[in-house]
C-alpha cells in the first residue's frame, strides 16, 4: 500500500480513494496552504493568505475540478474549520497547522487550567526525554477535550492522551495562542507539565 508523504502528511491510498472528491480537494488545499504552496506554483503572503483566483486556477491546472462555489463549501463544511477567507473573499488561508513560517495573527491568551495532547504510544519515550516538541510545525497543538485528543492520537498509531498543566505553564511564563478554529498552540511543552492520561 503506497502512502502519499508530503511535509509529513501521510494519507493512505485506500483512504484517499474512499474520500469524496470534495474531501480529496480539502486534503490537497491543506497541503498547499499549510506546507507546500509551490506544489501548484503559488506563493502565500506574510500572513499565510493565497489569492483565491490563483489558487482555483492553479488547482484546476493539475486536472482537479474546483470553482469558487466548491471552495466556499469546503471552507464552510470543514469539521475542523481549517480555512478562512479575508473580508472580501479574495484571499484564503489555513487557520493553523503550518510548517512554513507565516504570521496567522494568533491571539495570545491565558489557557484553561488543563489542555490535552493526542499522540501515539510509540512517541512516549521521546516525550519523556525531550518534552512535547513542535516537530515540523510552528506550534504544538492542544485540544480542549480528551475525545478530540484521542482522535488525533489515532492518526499516529496506538493512541495515548497527555494531560497538560497549561495553567501552571502560563504562570511560569509560557505563551499560549488560540487559533481562529479554536486550537490551542504552544511552542514547547516540558515533560514536567505532562501527565499521561489513563
Structure in words:
- It is built from 7 helices and 14 strands.
- It has 198 residues and is of the alpha+beta class.
- The chain has 2 domains: 92 residues, Arc Repressor Mutant, subunit A (Orthogonal Bundle); 91 residues, ADP-ribosylation fold.
- The strands form 5 sheets. The chain has a 4-stranded antiparallel sheet, with no helix packed on it.
- The longest helix is centred in the first third of the chain and has 15 residues.
- The radius of gyration is 18 Å and the shape is elongated.
- The N terminus is likely disordered.
Structure, briefly:
This protein is α+β, with helices and mostly antiparallel strands and 198 residues long. It is built from seven helices and 14 strands.
As a whole number of angstroms, the C-alpha radius of gyration is 18 Å
User: Low-confidence segments, ≥5 residues, pLDDT <50?
Assistant: 1-16
Helicity, as a percent range: 25-40%
CATH homologous superfamily assignment of the largest domain: RNA 2'-phosphotransferase, Tpt1/KptA family, N-terminal domain
List the helices and strands and how they pair.
Elements: E1 3-6, E2 9-12, H1 13-18, H2 21-35, E3 50-51, H3 52-60, H4 68-77, E4 83-85, E5 91-94, E6 107-108, E7 115-120, H5 124-130, E8 132-133, E9 140-142, H6 146-154, E10 159-164, H7 166-171, E11 177-178, E12 184-186, E13 188-189, E14 194-197
Antiparallel strand pairs: 1-2, 3-5, 4-5, 6-11, 7-10, 8-13, 9-12, 10-14, 11-12
Record keyword descriptors for this entry.
198 residues; alpha+beta; Arc Repressor Mutant, subunit A; ADP-ribosylation fold; 2 domains; 14 strands; 31% helix; disordered N terminus
